[in-house]
Amino acid sequence: MLNCNALVHELNNRCWKVCSGTGKLSTKLDSRLETCLSNCVDRFIDTSNFMANRITSLAAQSASSDGQSSWD
């Protein structure tokens, strides 16, 4: 649970800075900012899933060619 909270905090900081431009707090969340934040988080999740799948695939290929797991 701690890692999940840390991830949410990190995404919040990164995406807020990217989407708000200034990183300053605003009194309202307009539709442009909401869309940007949603897209930012979606891209992070897509990239994380892609990287996890790629690492798993490379590990499986390495294990099948070496006859053993590279994670041992």
3D structure, described in words:
- There is one protein chain.
- This protein has 72 residues and is mainly alpha-helical.
- The protein has a domain at 1-18 and 30-55.
- It has helices at residues 2-20, 31-66.
User: CA-to-CA gap between the ends?
Assistant: 27 Å
Biggest sheet, open or closed, and with what strands and sense?
Answer: none
Low-pLDDT sequence parts? none
Q: What is the number of helices?
A: 2
Radius of gyration: 18 Å
Number of strands: 0
Strand content: under 5%
Helix content: over 70%
Overall residue-averaged pLDDT value: 85
Order of helices and strands: HH
Task: Classify the secondary structure makeup into a structural class.
Answer: mainly alpha
Name the overall outline. Answer: elongated
Summarize the structure.
The chain contains two helices and no strands. The protein has 72 residues and is an all-alpha fold.
Topology readout:
Elements: H1 2-20, H2 31-66
Defining key terms:
72 residues; elongated; membrane; disulfide bond; mainly alpha; single chain; Tim10-like
